UniProtKB/TrEMBL annotation:
Keywords: Signal. Residues 33-143 form the LTD domain. NCBIfam families: ExeM_NucH_DNase. Residues 199-215, 784-793 have a biased composition (Acidic residues). One of its GO terms (molecular function) is catalytic activity. It holds the Pfam family LTD. Residues 1-26 form the signal peptide. Residues 193-218, 778-806 are annotated as: Disordered. InterPro entries: Endo/exonu/phosph_ase_sf (IPR036691), Endo/exonuclease/phosphatase (IPR005135), ExeM-like (IPR047971), Lamin_tail_dom (IPR001322). This is LTD domain-containing protein.
Length: 822
């Protein structure tokens, strides 16, 4: 495969996995959907029982008509029980010959339908049942516990991926004896290659199987214009018909996962129709610049027009490519891109990298004409300004893929076309010029599949650790599930998989905390295990910065969540004054601790000035969590789920700090931590109304951020000072060491290739997904009032700035719901 070919866009879309699981099989023309009970053509064709949450089954439609999956459910029977431990109704429509992946929503691969249930171990049975009550297929034996696994020959159901042998009949009697070797072949644990593509062997059925070839005619003879195949609308008017086309290969993706190439002809003169089309075949091998003539059947594949050829001929090689079409951001009407689907395009302007969430797994980034901000970080939720920004900026982004559909591709490709390494990398905020490739539509998103490297400019260099000029410093830092309990030992743990990962994670977190060098640090996302993780972290930090430099404020277990908040401090700088205080629902029922982590407050005495300051570290419920049980579902104004839970907690926090005689005695209170709310959302406004000053906004400015979600910046991590303390704040800094770095460089190794594991350094960069906040205090003197906040007006895309290089605010309404950890 050429270094840049056409590859796969974002998978983090509701229908993504449906494409993934059927990518290897021939698409078909639209056909009427039969009822689920009309004919049971479904077969369980792959079984994954891997490490951690890597559990899935692949279900394939072996029939000739689409199947409505709403007529089926997956039942799990654990440990020999005859009662289900889980029962999930499926959803969607499965095309003939296509496959569907059902599995854990936390698996290390994409699934069509995810579940939060624990699913199965090697001794659990699985039944695919129709809603008419009939068993369609089964795996294992219901009512029998084999111990650890069913095993026959070299085939075992524990710590393995099993693939159904082609020609196997469904097992409709789940109570009969199960012999896995009779119908299944075994692969090593955590083998996901081919998941969603059955059969994935040489048994036939793959694209490119010539079958009975049809003649293509002579090269250069009259052919159907690609524009006629594409038509002027979103769907081809020729679906199900045969067409003979001839053109130039402008994107080769026959290897790397998509199994085809893009062909573009000279055009039909109709600006409303695209002159490019995807050709779904792996044979014969072609190269960019080949002139190819082919005959095949036209189909729509989840919104993308394609041809599956029955005969193909390479007419010539080394042909000139058509000039790329200029597609400029912003794009007000996304449907207008249909006229360029499959064609060679270029972005005629400099663009900014705004997101790399899928870069490690799928080689994909998002770009815009400038940096974008969460609308509710800049404007009050529900305001016309917030909605206008969201709508306007939805047009100002496009995806850039890497020409491959494989997970964790090796090597990772830098947008400039070279290999991404620890020394040759990029950050969000960097610039690209000359982005050129094929315009591609999959997974409900448009993407450019590059055919050449772009020019990369470092516009957002890595910042060194900030220094604030103050006699006392307080920091808030997220340590991204720092767990001493390893996931290899306990599947409910959230952090490192094993000792190697843990050492890598700890090195990065220690480097970050050492760089902050704060006198008091409030931590979030540390394991809630009776201070074991906290003590371990302090020991590791002191091993780096000097024995006794930091001390843990031990509290024991707080609340019921797996993660908690915590304090570490420098005993040379401060001393705790009295016992730690905890706010939970027993103190105020508005602070629901079945959702929020308890707030942790401590009065510290500054040894320099002798003055006290109350610091409260928080971690409120995330935007993506479920709070419908409390009557608090998704907020209609873009604040996500659990907004009421967070707002009530914020009000309870303000009242508690104001009424508590010891915590309020000094008049110096600082609220820090992950409040899971952006700066203009209800929880923060509630604290503002109670007199708490947003000192990040006051000192850093309205373009401050600690988190990137869906390419948009904002701060979920706060520093809110009481009126009495705000006048003693000398400076505030956000160290953007984490959010702007692609997570490819983080500590995790579980799903990476060896070469990706090597893209790591034991430094502070990408120690977490949140950036730490550092606050400088002079309790004995006057602080710096900072700059008063001024209204932020909506800006045209690409005209805004942060430190002179950042751009526009906002993207899609969908991203208004962005959040953090649960």
């Amino acid at each position: 495969m050429e270094r840049f070919a056409v590859g796969r866009p974002r998978r983090a879309v509701a229908l993504a996995a449906t494409v993934v699981v059927s990518a290897a099989l021939a698409p078909i023309a639209a056909a009427p959907v039969v009822s689920a009970q009309a004919a049971h053509a479904l077969l369980i064709t792959e079984y994954v029982e891997g490490t951690s949450f890597n559990k899935a089954i692949e279900i394939t439609n072996t029939g000739v008509t689409p199947v409505d999956l709403a007529g089926y459910s997956v039942e799990v029977y654990s440990n020999g029980s005859t009662s289900t431990s889980s029962n999930d109704r499926l959803a969607g429509t499965l095309a003939p010959g296509s496959s569907f992946v059902y599995g854990s929503s936390r698996a290390g691969f994409t699934v069509d339908q995810g579940t939060g249930a624990g699913l199965w171990n090697g001794d659990d049975a699985i039944v695919l049942r129709s809603t008419d009550g009939g068993v369609v297929d089964s795996f294992g034996q219901v009512g029998f516990d084999p111990g650890t696994a069913w095993t026959s020959g070299e085939v075992s159901t524990v710590d393995r991926t099993l693939r159904r042998i082609v020609g196997s009949a469904p097992d409709t009697d789940p109570s009969n004896v199960f012999d896995p070797a009779a119908q299944w072949t075994s692969m090593p644990v955590d083998t996901f290659d081919g998941l969603g593509n059955w059969p994935d062997d040489d048994s036939g059925g793959d694209p490119g199987d010539p079958g009975d070839e049809e003649p293509v005619g002579a090269c250069g003879e009259a052919a159907t214009a690609v524009g006629a195949v594409q038509g002027p609308g979103a769907q081809s008017p020729m679906v199900g018909q045969s067409a003979t086309v001839e053109g130039i290969v402008v994107g080769d993706m026959q290897t790397g996962g998509f199994r085809g190439f893009y062909l573009q002809d000279a055009g039909d003169g109709d600006a409303a129709t695209s002159d490019g089309v995807f050709v779904y075949t792996e044979t014969p091998a072609v190269s960019v610049g080949d002139r190819v003539r082919l005959t095949g059947t036209v189909a729509e594949y989840f919104g993308m027009t394609q041809i599956q050829p029955t005969a193909t001929e390479v007419c010539a090689t080394g042909q000139d490519l058509p000039a790329p079409i200029e597609v400029a951001l912003p794009i007000a009407d996304r449907d207008s891109l249909e006229q360029y689907e499959g064609m060679r395009v270029t972005l005629p302007q400099q663009v900014t990298i705004i997101e790399a969430f899928n870069y490690d797994r799928y080689g994909q980034i998002a770009v815009s004409t400038g940096r974008q901000f969460q609308p509710t970080n800049q404007f009050e939720a529900g305001s016309s300004e917030a909605r206008a920004l969201a709508e306007a900026n939805a047009a100002d982004r496009i995806l850039i893929d890497d020409g491959r559909s494989t997970q964790n591709p090796d090597p990772a490709i830098h947008p400039d076309g070279a290999d991404f390494t620890i020394d040759h990398r990029f950050r969000m905020g960097d610039h690209l010029d000359g982005v050129t490739g094929v315009l591609d539509y999959r997974f409900e998103a448009w993407a450019i599949q590059p055919t050449q490297g772009a020019t990369h400019t470092v516009a957002n260099p890595r910042p060194t650790a900030p220094v604030v000029d103050a006699p006392l410093t307080v920091a808030g830092a997220n340590v991204l599930n720092y767990f001493t309990t390893l996931r290899s030992d306990d599947r409910n743990a959230r952090g490192a998989l094993d000792a190697t990962e843990f050492a890598r994670q700890e090195d990065k977190i220690v480097a970050m905390l050492a760089g902050l060098d704060a006198d008091v640090v409030g931590l979030t996302e540390i394991e809630n295990n009776d201070d074991v993780a906290l003590r371990r972290l302090v020991d590791a930090l002191n091993a780096r910065v000097g024995e006794g430099t930091y001390r843990a404020l031990e509290t024991g277990r707080l609340g019921t969540d797996a993660i908690t908040t915590a304090f570490i401090y420098k005993p040379a700088a401060v001393s705790p004054d009295g016992a730690v205080e905890v706010l939970d629902e027993t103190v105020d029922p508005r602070f629901v601790t079945s959702k929020n982590r308890p707030a942790l407050a401590q009065v510290f005495t500054d040894k320099t000035s002798g003055e006290d300051v109350t610091v409260v570290v928080n971690h409120l419920k995330s935007k993506g969590s479920a709070c419908a049980d409390l009557g608090d579902p998704e907020d209609p104004n873009g604040q996500g789920n659990c907004n009421g839970v967070r707002t009530n907690a914020a009000r309870a926090l303000a009242d508690w700090l104001g009424d508590h005689p010891r915590l309020s005695a000094s008049g110096h209170s600082l609220v820090i931590g992950d409040l899971n709310a952006y700066a203009k959302e209800d929880p923060i406004l509630a604290l503002n109304e109670a007199g708490y000053v947003d000192v990040i906004r006051q000192h850093v400015g309205p373009e401050a951020y600690t988190y990137v979600f869906d390419g948009q910046l904002g701060y979920l991590d706060h520093a809110l000072a009481s009126a009495g303390l705000a006048e003693h704040v000398t400076d505030v800094a956000v160290w953007t060491n984490n959010a702007d770095e692609p997570d490819l460089i983080d500590y995790t190794m579980e799903f990476k290739k060896d070469a990706q594991d090597a893209i790591y350094a034991p430094d502070a960069y990408r120690a977490s997904d949140h950036d730490p906040v550092l606050v400088g205090l002079d309790l004995a003197g006057d602080g710096d009032p900072g700059d008063p906040e001024e209204p932020t007006d909506p800006q045209e895309p690409g005209t805004g700035s942060v430190s002179g290089v950042f751009g526009t605010i906002g993207t899609a309404l969908r991203s208004l719901f962005a959040g953090s950890s649960a």
